[in-house]
Write a sequence for this structure.
């Protein structure tokens, strides 16, 4: 069992160069489901309530400092002399700490909390292991370090490049993750040398050093190779995204949403869906979306930073941007863009409309082609539309402007001054009516043309 009295420290390795990403963005900040991979890992580890968190970083430390804020300490590793050397850089930050240390990789973001917990529980088992290694059996073991073990007890850790043919035949591989007692970790690391095929200080050698002292070291094996998959290239990033999305779609359906074509729906890490939500084909959720019960999202919608209350209908082909709030039974139809705007209960914008920085009263009807003109090239302004107001098609509401409750704005109006409750506002030229004029015109022109032949 986990020793409840034993506090936990995380050491997350992220000093590798990440050259295969070919990116100016630090590898561990590349997003999966709209969230940096490092933050996925931190969230899973946070469930264990770590007392200390240290991220070991090389190049790009400013980017990590910005992303982490004060949620973790940074330790710099420069130059990068191997995984053992990387963990040693956390020694200063962990001075005086004597709990358990969980060593994670920033580019292995989807290790489950249960797996981490299993490693820590094993660390406190009766045989008192010095180190617990997380092993797995990949389909292709080639490049991984091997865990030579018997009955869950590790005999030797060996890197692929240093391994004999017999050792390479071993299928149990090292994921890289380890749990170690804090009061032993740095003493073990200090005894690790770099006399090996790569001239690196291998973290894995702490197991061999502890074994030499007659200590037990254990391996916990995960049967989910996906959770220990490292991300080293854009292709692996896309594969990790695909695995994440596949799981999330299954979860959405298990929770009571209908996905008409699940493989075409893309969720963000924090998407919240209610029950009896229908999501049609080709819908993309960016971060920050909450969808209540009984909502229909028609095909080809892009939704980000939005709250959809119950009974809402969106799309097809709608775009909801951050700050969009659709209250109960509001409707947003095709080719409508909503940004930082609230549609109160039952309000409708069914066709070809831009609603930005706006407040649309309950039951209001926004006609096709309505535009809130919210920006003058320098500042943004709000449009406030009252309850049950009717905005005629192809109107331009030039903010800041208020349209009163029950008011009617005639089609084609460009409204730049406030409209009172119950008012009709018509902003367009008086109509010229000339009965029979077109008939006379056609007769005259046809005659002229005939004369010229
Ligand atoms: C390491 C393990 C290997 C395991 C494999 C799993 C060692 C010696 N080898 O291999 O047994 O099968 O992971 O992927 O531990 N890093 C640093 N500083 C360094 C070197 C690496 O921070 O000086 C970080 C990297 O950013 C990465 C992690 O450590 O997050 C692993 O580095 P990587 O080079 O991918 O691992 P290998 O040495 O190939
Ligand atoms: Ca790797």
């Amino acid at each position: 069992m986990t020793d409840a009295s034993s506090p936990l420290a995380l050491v997350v390795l992220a000093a590798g160069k990440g050259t295969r990403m070919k990116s100016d963005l630090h590898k561990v900040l590349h997003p999966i489901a709209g969230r940096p991979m490092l933050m996925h890992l931190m969230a899973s580890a946070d469930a264990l309530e770590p007392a200390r968190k240290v991220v070991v970083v090389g190049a790009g430390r400013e980017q990590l400092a910005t992303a982490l804020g004060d949620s973790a300490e940074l330790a710099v590793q420069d130059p990068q002399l191997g995984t053992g050397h990387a963990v040693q850089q956390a020694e200063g930050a962990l001075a005086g700490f004597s709990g358990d240390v969980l060593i994670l990789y920033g580019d292995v973001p989807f290790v489950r909390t249960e797996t981490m917990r299993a490693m820590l529980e094993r660390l406190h088992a009766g045989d008192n292991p010095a180190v617990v290694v997380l092993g797995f059996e990949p389909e292709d073991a080639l490049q991984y370090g091997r865990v030579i073990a018997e009955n869950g007890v590790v005999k030797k850790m060996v890197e692929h490049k240093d391994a004999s043919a017999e050792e390479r035949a071993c299928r149990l591989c090292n994921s890289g993750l380890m749990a170690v007692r804090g009061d032993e970790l740095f003493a073990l690391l200090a005894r690790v040398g770099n006399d090996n095929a790569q001239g690196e200080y291998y973290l894995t050698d702490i197991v061999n050093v502890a074994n030499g002292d007659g200590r037990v070291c254990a391996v916990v094996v995960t049967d989910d190779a996906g959770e220990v998959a490292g991300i080293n290239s854009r292709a692996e990033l896309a594969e990790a995204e695909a695995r994440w999305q596949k799981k999330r779609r299954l979860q959405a359906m298990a929770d009571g949403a209908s996905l008409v074509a699940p493989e075409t729906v893309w969720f963000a890490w924090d998407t919240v869906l209610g029950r009896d939500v229908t999501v049609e084909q080709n819908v993309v959720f960016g971060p920050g979306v909450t969808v209540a019960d009984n909502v229909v999202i028609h095909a080809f919608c892009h939704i980000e930073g939005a709250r959809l209350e119950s009974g809402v209908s969106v799309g097809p082909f709608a775009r909801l941007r951050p700050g969009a709030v659709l209250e109960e039974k509001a409707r947003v139809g095709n080719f409508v863009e909503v940004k930082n705007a609230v549609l109160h209960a039952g309000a409708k914008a069914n066709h070809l409309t831009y609603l930005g920085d706006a407040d649309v009263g309950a039951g209001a009807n926004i006609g096709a082609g309505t535009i809130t003109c919210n920006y003058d090239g320098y500042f943004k302004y709000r449009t406030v539309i009252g309850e049950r107001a009717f905005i005629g098609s192809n109107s331009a509401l030039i903010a800041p402007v208020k349209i009163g409750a029950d008011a009617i704005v005639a089609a084609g109006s460009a409204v730049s001054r406030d409209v009172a409750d119950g008012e009709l506002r018509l902003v367009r030229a008086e109509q010229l009516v000339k009965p029979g004029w077109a008939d006379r015109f056609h007769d005259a022109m046809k005659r002229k043309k005939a004369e010229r032949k």
User: Anything to note?
Assistant: The chain has a mean pLDDT of 97.
